[in-house]
Amino acid sequence: MIDHPTRDVGFGVYLHWPFCAAKCPYCDFNSHVRHAPPDEAAWRAAFAREIAHVARLVPGRTVTSIFLGGGTPSLMQPATVGALLDAVAGAWSLAPGAEVTLEANPTSVEAERFRGYRAAGVNRVSLGVQALDDASLKALGRLHSAEEALRAVETASRHFERFSFDLIYARPGQTPAAWAAELRAAIARAAEHLSLYQLTIEEGTPFHGLAAAGRLVVPEEEAARALFDVTQEVCDAAGLPAYEISNHARPGAESRHNLLYWRYGEYAGIGPGAHGRLVLPEGRTGTVTERRPEAWLDRVARDGHGLTATEPLSPAEEGDEFLLMGLRLREGIDPARYAALSDRTLDPDRLAALTGEGLVERRRTGRLAATARGAPVLNAVVAELAA
Fold this sequence. Notes:
The chain is α/β, with parallel strands linked by helices and 387 residues long.
């Protein structure tokens, strides 16, 4: 690998399947609804071509994790998933025990299909449950019921030793007591990992329009903070502490692929709208692909890849990204690695001020981490450190 100031956190591959059965009103991801099913044979071929192109840019890597995200990757046939994984394995070597995660929605979960995914090489699934009561699911625009969600979790537990599911909190009218009860019910079924996201109103989504019109009211800052605190208390008590702001796991059950992002490792982004961070001869480089699915297919057919941007990052950009990603982790960051990436050290006066306010702390190991008080206002903490 090119010499670069990064510890060995592995090499990941993100594969973006852009299609969904319906677009959720809170979602600003690059996901698309099509009336006719996509031609999966054409998509398999296009993914294989882009994977081969990126492998020529960064040859000789050993893949430690693969993540099939979207969109709804569980709408793919198992044969398509297998073909994508085979293409990755043909382009790079796979580490023994590499983590291979597939995102799934409860409405597309079938035991036969899960058996097929497992046979194809998937060894971990992440389910988009989002809520455990039907009224909340309807308000969130989800197509499944709470009963379907729990059946999907049970199906996942029968086919995969490692699985996780997502919930959204800070929903309209949600109380700390109701959220605590829902969270305990989730933990009883989660086994090892939960992703718990605070509902945010993203510009350009239907929820943004409803909120602007006063027809959707989410908890204000103080109420949302109370729900965040309940999240930490309930999960800590159950043995699933937060290892990242929105992710909770039993020790050793953390998502290795997502840890690679937060530890600022190297990863390839494949598929429409995927982003990557590759270490090229000119240094760490950001890659972006064409967002529109059909336009991406056309680019791949014409050029052999769908990349629209390949831009080396400046030391300042690397440092800022490293802070933004790494301080999300409970383990924090190594300030020496920040200095190596950014060509500067953290400002001691700003660091002292943030420490004095109880927002960050220096561990005995020398690592710098956000405190429980600093985590909910992390963007402001990072902005201050990066200034």
